[in-house]
Amino acid sequence: MINMPEWQRCLDAQLGPPKPGQYRAKPEDFWVDEQLDFTPEAHGEHLWLRVEKRNQTTLDVVRILGSLCDVTPRDIGYSGMKDRIAVTRQWLSVHLPGRDAPSSLAHSLNAQGITVVEQVRHPRKLKRGVHRTNRFVLRLSGEATESEDFTGRWEALCQYGVPNYFGPQRFGHKGHNLQRAEALLNRGWRKRDDRQGMMLSTARSFLFNELLSARITDDTWSQPLAGDTLMLDGTQSVFSIDATDATLMARAAALDVHPTGVLWGVGGAGQGDAASYEAQLLQQHPALCSGLERSGVKQARRALRMRLLEPQLAWETGAVRLSFVLPRGSFATAVLGELLVAN
Fold first, then answer.
1. Which domain holds residue 48?
2. What's the pLDDT tens digit per position in 247-293?
3. What are the distances in angstroms from CA 199 to CA 7, 53, 78, 178, 181?
4. How many domains in the chain?
């Protein structure tokens, strides 16, 4: 059985491990706002709702919406899963062809702790992963924020980028999701046992984090290696390189391109120096790798590094408030892991 490891931080070599701290003493300390890069068209069969929730999961909202609108969960769309212990804003869609939403919908949602911030019609269902970014406002406190090196840590992340780890919420409490994924892959993945593909995602996330940690240990996570696949910042566009040169190194230093790591699945093997890290994964976790390949999931790439957009730091009495924007799929907890040890 796989146990959750302690993955390597990028700032430890320079500044040592961070001090203890808190970042979610109450839901209001962790605020998230999902950002689309388009505007709904104001007509169509789907009602799109931008809602604010507190202490509820996205699936909690889906369940409540389905009950109030008399639709099944399949008729409800959302782009991303948002944290429970937080105040979050996100879009959801409800398929209501030829009929209006209940007139009391906003009031009924509000009675269950969900505020409708905006509502508009659109021709299509909201699909997973279509939002562009998430804006975070986080309040941190404790010994870490009182440490002399806190500002230096924050400035280093703003300048050089952040390891793009999957956050601990992906793996469940004490890694239980990872253990479930391991068991499922060992006996043979079947869609009926993993309807949403969460166990596949958990296993791939674990392997990606393992690769990223190894490259941080070797100080190669933020610079291209021969054979790397690079991703253009702010996009999902990738290109492969046979060798490195001064131009590529300069672009990486400017956060214009990022090395990527494999999201394991069916696909070709890596090349050059970068391939040694994939070979290491296969050697260390053969059952996970082979189980993912047998499932038929296709190989993909994820940037090893993320850029903090619009970063701001403000000091408060006994705390610090951070705000920043991350691309979809990136975790604020990966940023916080470089700044404090949660207690």
1. 38-122
2. 999 999 999 999 999 999 999 888 899 999 999 999 999 999 999 99
3. 20, 26, 19, 7, 5
4. 2
Q: Catalytic residue among 83, 194, 228, 233, which? A: 83
H or E element, residue 52: strand 46-54
Mapped onto helix, strand or coil, the DSSP state of residue 12 is helix
Looking at the structure, tell me whether residues 76 and 187 fall in a common domain. Answer: no
Is 114 found in the same domain as 226? no
CATH at residue 195: 3.30.2340.10
The whole-model pTM stands at 0.93
Please name the amino acid found at residue 114. I
Of the two residues 333 and 195, the one the predictor is more confident about is 333
Query: Is residue 219 flagged as an active site residue?
Result: no
208 in Cβ contact with 261 (< 8 Å): yes
User: Under DSSP, is residue 138 helix (H, G, I), strand (E, B) or coil?
Assistant: strand
Per the structure block, which two tokens stand in for 316?
Answer: 């408060």
Q: How does strand 87-95 pair with strand 30-35?
A: parallel
- Whether residues 103 and 199 fall in one domain: no
Q: Do residues 191 and 263 share a domain?
A: yes
Instruction: Check: CB of residue 292 under 8 Å from CB of residue 200.
Output: yes
Chain segment 291-331, per-residue pLDDT in tens: 999 999 999 999 999 999 999 999 999 899 999 999 999 99
198, two tokens: 């969460």
Burial class (CB in 10 A: 0-12, 13-18, 19+), 177: buried
What the block records as the tokens of 2 is: 């796989």
Q: Which residue is associated with the tokens 């269950």? A: 112
Same domain, 192 and 116: no
Residues 107, 172 within the same domain: no
Kindly state whether residue 185 falls inside one of the protein's structural domains.
yes
pLDDT, one tens digit per residue, over 230-253 is 999 999 999 999 999 999 999 999
- pLDDT of the residue at 190: 93
How many residues would you count in the chain? 343
In a domain, 299, yes or no: yes
- Inside any domain, residue 183: yes
- Choose the final residue of a domain: 86, 105, 122: 122
Q: What's the confidence (pLDDT) of residue 223? A: 95
Return the residue matching tokens 């906003």.
106
In a domain, 27, yes or no: no
Residues 290 and 180 in one domain: yes
